[in-house]
Specification:
Chains A, B: InterPro entries: HotDog_dom_sf, RHA1_ro05818_N, THEM4/THEM5_acyl-CoA_thioest, Thioestr_dom. The structure is a homodimer of 203-residue chains. The first copy, chain A, has 4 helices and 6 strands; from the N terminus they run H-H-H-E-E-H-E-E-E-E. With 203 residues, chain A is of the alpha+beta class. Chain A has a domain at 91-195: Roll (Thiol Ester Dehydrase, Chain A). The interface between A and B is large, with 94 and 94 residues.
Chain lengths: 203, 203
């Protein structure tokens, strides 16, 4: 099995709206209580957008069936999902038949220590990237155990390279490793044990 | 040292705007490409909000100094931060002198497997909660190693309890454990090794 590593860009609607929502997220964290903007006006405008979306969207169960249609990459996940404003989003390219990578620069919404990426965000990015590497290598599953080691602080506002490689497949056990580098130095590394099991997709 | 476990609510502005942004995030993931809403109009309105915030906000360096002022809980992190739309946000209460917990129900933006919490999101929530437990117990630091075990899938749309407890402090090494439960069953558990080190706060 090969998978499409790119969740693709839809020129119309949703991707542009989600990209704009990412700008709002970043601007709100940057604003905090230091802004001159009228925050109750901002709240009203955002609530109006949410109201308009809610009143024209399908029931959640229908959307779940829709988002899980097909067998390729989904578009809604919180790491690479073009339809998820929480996702940076990562955009993967193949390095070889078992290895993938993505580049990303993270801003204030992903902060842990001052000016650094939150350790849990690094774990989130790595868990997902390991899973995508498994799909790319042809044997995937759900995470059973993830170990993340923090070698040095991971900077915000600088290009990061996130890499993952499937190491072995032994029956249903899949082992995969990955790392986050900044300026050529490894900041975070991860080892994952995955079990070849596929929860049913909603129908 | 004791810390204020609650990052507090500011009745005015920013918290309300951020809460509205969370509604937008959720509504966008629910809408996807199944909505009848005019998504280029939605994109325009969100970009206008981002433009207004950007033009009335301080330079990032000034905001960094502001958000790290004082020694208590910060308000901007991606897990408990009232000022961060990415955060669910968790709201912690003390269980005993070394243990804290939070309840949360997660929606579509946090999805991994169908109708389940993304494994990396569980890692993010646990890493942060372990860190807050360390602060509460009186000895905190940065994550050196985090091991996360996935026992069963963690459901979306159901109340979860996220708990963390500081187990030991040995010189600069701090060990902390935590778990995520749904309906009384452990879905995910974590062990963290933290090093008592505090990156400088921006001045």
């Amino acid at each position: 099995m090969t998978i499409d590593l790119h969740s693709g860009t839809r020129p119309a609607g949703v991707d542009a709206a989600v990209a704009a929502a990412r700008r709002v997220i970043d601007a709100l964290v940057r604003a905090g209580d230091m802004t001159d903007a009228d925050m109750s006006d901002i709240a009203d405008r955002l609530n109006a957008v949410a109201d308009d979306l809610d009143s024209s969207s399908p029931p959640v169960d229908d959307r779940l069936v829709d988002m899980w249609r097909g067998d390729g990459m989904t578009r809604h996940d919180p790491v690479a999902g073009r339809e998820n404003p929480i996702a940076p989003p990562l955009d993967y390219t193949a390095v070889d038949s078992r290895t993938i990578e993505a580049e990303a620069t993270l801003g204030l919404p992903y902060q842990g220590p001052p000016s650094c990426v939150h350790g849990g965000v690094s774990a989130l990015l790595l868990d997902h990237t390991l899973g995508v590497a498994n799909g790319w290598a042809g044997a995937s599953g759900v995470t059973a155990e993830l170990t993340v080691r923090y070698h040095r602080l991971t900077p915000l506002f600088e290009p990061l390279t996130i890499t993952a490689r499937q190491i072995s497949v032994d029956g249903r056990k899949i082992r995969t490793t990955g790392e986050i580098k900044a300026g050529g130095e490894t900041c975070v590394s991860a080892e994952g044990l995955f079990i070849a099991k596929h929860p049913p997709r909603p129908r």
